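Annex B. Sample input.
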Amino acid sequence: MSEARKILVFGASGLIGRFVTDDLRARGFEVIGIARRYSSSQKATALDLEMPVMSMDTGELTRLIANHKIDLVVNCVGVLQDGPGSDTSAVHRDFVERLLRAIRESGRMIRLIQISIPGSVHEDRTAFSQTKREAERLIAVFGAPYTILRPGFVIAPSAYGGSAMLRALAALPIDLPATECATPFQPVAVEDIAATIAWLAARDAGDTAADGVIWDLMQPQPVRLGGVIAQFRRALGTADMPRLTLPAFLLELGGKAGDLANLIGWTPPMRGTAISELRRGVTGNPKPWLLATGIVPKTLAQMVGPRAGTIQDKWFARLFLIKPLMIASLALFWTVSGFISLVVSYDAAAGILRSHGFAPSLVAPVTILTSLMDISIGILIAFRRTSAFGLIAGIVASLGYMLGAAILTPDLWIEPLGALVKTGPAIVLMLVALLTLDNR
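Annex B, continued. Sample output.
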């Protein structure tokens, strides 16, 4: 039965969706993975389809389901916070409403598996949690077969979002405030989520054991956020590292900075919503899930892994929080240097060109154009969509400055402050930022 069953996974490029898609295929299911965009390493087969999911209407979703003769739909789509290209209401509620209508109009007996979040309605304080809960209510009253899964804090072999943040905290000599460390934080292995979906996929849509149920997926043993970080520290070999506790105001400031970065297209894990959800904690009752499926969930120690962290684990964790500092410093470096040359020290900048024999008619245009170019590079680096282009432009411009100085103003190479000499390390920093720009 499982070999003939066809499964449609929405959000197949995400942390949960990617793992579930690959796991179900390994178990012999035919899985069509749908995502707005895959990274170059994620698109494994011709059944990994890139589609504008959020703009697909009911008719398009219906045809997708009917054309592939889908028996099970898994919805892993989600966004943490509103921002450019991310609307929690559109993603969590409106899409689910269209998907439910499409399932009904397809004329097929299909179960919907919805990936949601743990907790209760009275604890929902953010647009993220409120719209997730609205989707649950829509599903419950619609009448189609459904199962709602509420995973705890998801730990997977790959790192993204919150799990990447905790790895970074474990690798660096910093700790969260005591209040946050004491927050209940029950984790779940992504393997256990995939095993649950495979268990559901092997059952008919009308199977009452799995119909209309809401399961909390997490290890039953209580654990706190500090305990999760401590487990990562043991794996990374940093358990005995001296560390400083972050003041609460710095955590708030980090959230504000993350919200600002979100407005220009970045999706940092430390944002206002993330901090609110972190302080809320992750708890639930996994007993109904365990009794129904017989799955024995991994413990925290098993999730993080019995092996010591590899060098790539350590490098990633150490660089994760440094990456936004690189982007921010490079954006400021180019923008501020251009502004200083154009406004604050225009006469001094123009004087350098005059003193090296530039034609008077060229001094002003060259000074203004190079200053505007610097400012433009800084702005390009700052915005996520154009950051890669800005970094490449910055490298090319820096090499051009170095070459031009070597030909036209070679004496600047030996000036006391070494401005041109310092351009080399700046190029290396831009190269590192470019190479670490990917999120998945």
